[in-house]
Write a structure and sequence with these properties.
355 residues; alpha/beta; Rossmann fold; 3-stranded mixed sheet; 15% strand; binds nicotinamide-adenine-dinucleotide; binds 2'deoxy-thymidine-5'-diphospho-alpha-D-glucose
Length: 355
């Protein structure tokens, strides 16, 4: 079996659902169920004994030790994190605790477990650390996309905490030989994306007749990847990635935020027109920019394509349409995640108009 952390979040839940759809290997899912962890993401597995949920914190060394001893996973896939840049600006402490101390705890627990394994199990064991392109900082408009050799220059508390975790993971390979692999991925989108992030926020605010908040001039560029393609990349790395290696994963879909928001508005104009017949783009509102906002991210994914044969399957136009349809068809999921805690965040960050 494999041990997954953060499997009730956006990418972790998609990973577990996809994993159990393509193989029968059980998954132990260690998740603290923070505001971002949602068991409704895993509702399809409610009666599936291949998924074992353990509610707990990755910083709890005794718990992690006990899980490794009891389940003897052949791999640990580490998603759990505080993941939202804006929240890291409001309150960085939780990011240092989970993203830095949490990784340290997992690496130390995995090292103790792995060191005691018999030779063949030891050689097969993998610790896969899921990271982000944000560790590389911001790209100039004409600069080449981030390759694995790009220097680290994180700019937000979130990206700095992820950069620190990458350095720890890398060091545990170099110093102790722990078979670590790392992936640095671009912006994901798709089902179960928590609506604090741009794409689901825009879809749901549009439908609710609320402003669509675009930070600054809206010309910041992100490289969007459909979440199942990210999950497939991680499966390839687990199956064939070399210990000590980093793989950059991206969609080759660079787009300014404003163009992305307009694309979502145009899709909604077709799929669910406003009652007054006006275009949703009328709801776009420029708001104050994110402090330290990175201008551009783009990924050079040629290494994972060349060495592991991975390529994204979803185009941006098919992926974004699927995503918009998913939110239209999952009203109950949407209603539940937009609970009191979500409304508090919206008011705190955007003010009353978005509540
Ligand atoms: P998310 O915020 O949706 O989910 C995070 C999950 O981790 C939640 O289920 C939460 O309950 C759990 N968690 C948080 N703190 C925990 C703790 N201390 N112990 C145990 N569980 C804890 O995040 P996501 O968007 O699914 O991102 C998953 C991973 O992928 C993160 O490491 C993130 O840095 C990375 N990543 C995300 C993106 C993206 O676009 N979302 C892109 C590249 C990399
Ligand atoms: O690049 C990978 C990263 O992508 C992951 O590591 C992070 O976990 C994930 O949250 C995401 O970070 P971003 O900051 O790029 O995602 P977000 O959806 O928050 O914002 C996308 C862009 O849209 C960014 O330029 C900020 C802008 N934005 C965001 C929000 C929430 C707005 O203009 N308005 C908004 O209200």
């Amino acid at each position: 079996m494999i041990l997954v952390t953060g499997g009730a979040g956006f990418i972790g839940a998609n990973f577990i659902l996809d994993w159990l759809a393509v193989c029968d290997e059980p998954v132990v899912n260690l998740d603290k169920l923070t505001y971002a962890g949602n068991l409704e993401n895993l509702a399809a597995l409610a009666h599936d004994n291949r998924h074992i949920l353990v509610e707990g914190d990755i910083v709890d060394r005794a718990l992690v030790d006990a899980l490794l001893a009891r389940h003897r996973p052949r791999a640990l896939v580490h998603f759990a994190a505080e993941s939202h840049v804006d929240r890291s600006i409001h309150g960085p402490g939780a990011f240092i605790r989970t993203n830095v101390e949490g990784v340290f705890t997992l690496l130390e627990a995995a090292r103790a477990h792995w060191s005691a394994l018999p030779r063949t199990e030891k050689a097969a064991f993998r610790f896969h650390h899921v990271s982000t392109d944000e560790v590389y900082g911001s790209l100039a408009p004409e600069a080449a996309p981030f390759a694995e050799t790009h220097p680290y220059a994180p700019n937000s508390p979130y990206s700095a905490s992820k950069a620190a975790s990458d350095h720890l993971a890398r060091a545990w390979f170099h110093t102790y030989g722990l078979p670590v692999t790392i992936s640095n991925c671009s912006n994901n989108y798709g089902p179960f994306h928590f609506p604090e992030k741009l794409i689901p926020l825009v879809i749901l605010n549009a439908l609710a007749g609320k402003p669509l908040p675009v930070y600054g001039d809206g010309l910041q560029v992100r490289d969007w990847l459909y979440v199942s393609d990210h999950c497939a990349a991680i499966r390839r790395i687990l199956a064939a990635g070399a210990p000590g290696e980093t793989y950059n994963v991206g969609g080759g879909n660079e787009m300014p935020n404003l163009a992305l928001v307009r694309t979502i508005c145009a899709l909604l104009d077709t799929l669910k027109p406003r009652a007054d017949g006006q275009p949703y783009a009328r709801q776009i509102t420029h708001v104050a920019d994110r402090p330290g906002h990175d201008r551009r991210y783009a990924i050079d994914a040629r290494k994972i394509e060349r060495e592991l044969g991975w390529k994204p399957r979803e185009t941006f136009s098919s992926g974004i349409e699927k995503t918009v349809r998913w939110y239209l068809e999952h009203e109950a999921w949407v209603a539940h995640v937009q609970s009191g805690a979500y409304r508090e965040w919206m008011t705190r960050h955007y003010g009353d108009a978005h509540d």
